[in-house]
Amino acid sequence: MAKTDGQFAYLNGDFLPLEKCRISPQDRGFLFGDGVYEVIPVFNGQPFELDAHLDRLAQSLAQSAILNPLTNEQWQAMLAKLISYHPWSHQVLYLQVTRGTQMRRDHLPDEDLSPTLYAYASELKPVNPDWLTDGLSAITLPDDRWQHCDIKAITLLPNIRLKMQARDQGADDAILYDGDDRITEGTASNVFALFGQVLKTPPLSNHLLAGITRTVVMRLARDCDLSVCETPLTRQDLKEADEIWLTSSTKNALPITQLDHQPVGSGQPGPAWHALNARFETLKRTWPETSANPTD
Question: What is the pTM of this model?
Fold first, then answer.
C-alpha cells in the first residue's frame, strides 16, 4: 500500500480519508457515550504490545456487553493496513467501538444492533523535551468518577473535568485519590512512586485501568534492579516518595517533580527514572525485535 501524507481511517469495513468519515447522530456512542476505545502506539511501523491491547479491548467490550466486531486476526490485518496508509514510522492508533446506531433513542439498547467500528492513525510526536528535563507538576484531587474505571469507556467527561481543574490550579495533571485517601490513578495514566529501591504502584481493581505501559514499566524497572510492589498508596505516601512517575501509552513514563506545589525528592527527574527512561527508549528503538520478551 502506497503511503500518503493525508490521514486515513477505517469505518465499518471501509478505509476512507479521515475528513470523509461520517457517523450517524443516532449512534449510541454519540447519544450516550455507549462505547469503549483503545489507544495503541506504533514504533518503527509495528504496533507496540498489540496482543495486550487487543486483550484489554476485548475485556472492555465483554464487560460492556458489546459485541467484538472483529477476531484478533482481523484486527491485526486491519490495523496493519491502516498503518501502511501513513508515512510516519511512529504512530498512534485510536480504536473505538460503540454499541451501534439505534434510531429510537432509548437507554435500553435493542438486541440486534451492529457495533460501529472506527479507527484512525496519527503521528506519534516526541514528548515535550521540557517534561524530560524538568518533570511535570501535579496536584491531588478526589476521584469522583464512576466505579468501573477498569473499562476503557469513551465517557471521559469526569477525566476532562479533573484535568481542567489541575490546569486551573497551575498544574500539568492530577493524581486522584478515593474516599479512603488511597491513590487510584492519574487523569489518563497509572501512578508509580519510588521509595529507595522499591517501586510501588496501586494494585489493579475496578478503580483504575490496567495500563499496558504500566506492565512494561514494571518489567523494565526490575531490569533496573528495582523491586516492584503492587500495594495501596496514600497521599501521605506520595509526599514521602523519592520519585513519582505517571505512565501511559503515548508518553511512556513521565517524572512528577512537583506535587501539590511542593517538590518531589530533589525537585528534578530522579536517577531511577533516568535509568528506566533510557531502557524504554532502547525498547522503542529496537521494536519489534524485542517483542519476543514477555511483558510480565
Answer: 0.95
Neighbours of 208 (CB within 10 A): 23
| pLDDT tens digits, 100-142 | 999 999 999 999 999 999 999 999 999 999 999 999 999 999 9
Angstrom distance (rounded) from CA 103 to CA 92:
32
In DSSP terms, 101 is beta-bridged to 27
Helix (H) or strand (E) holding 162, with range, is helix 157-168
Give yes or no: 251 in active site.
Answer: no
- The domain segmentation of the chain, as residue ranges, is 8-123, 129-292
The backbone torsions φ and ψ at residue 261, rounded to the nearest 5 degrees and listed phi first, read: 70, 20
Given this structure, which CATH class describes domain 129-292? Answer: alpha beta
Q: Which of these is catalytic: 20, 152, 200, 251?
A: 152
* Cα dihedral 254/248/89/271 (nearest 10): 30
- Write the pLDDT tens digit of every residue in 191-227: 999 999 999 999 999 999 999 999 999 999 999 999 9
CB distance 147 to 206 below 8 Å: yes
Rounded CA-CA distance 113/102 in Å is 7
CATH hierarchy code of domain 8-123: 3.30.470.10
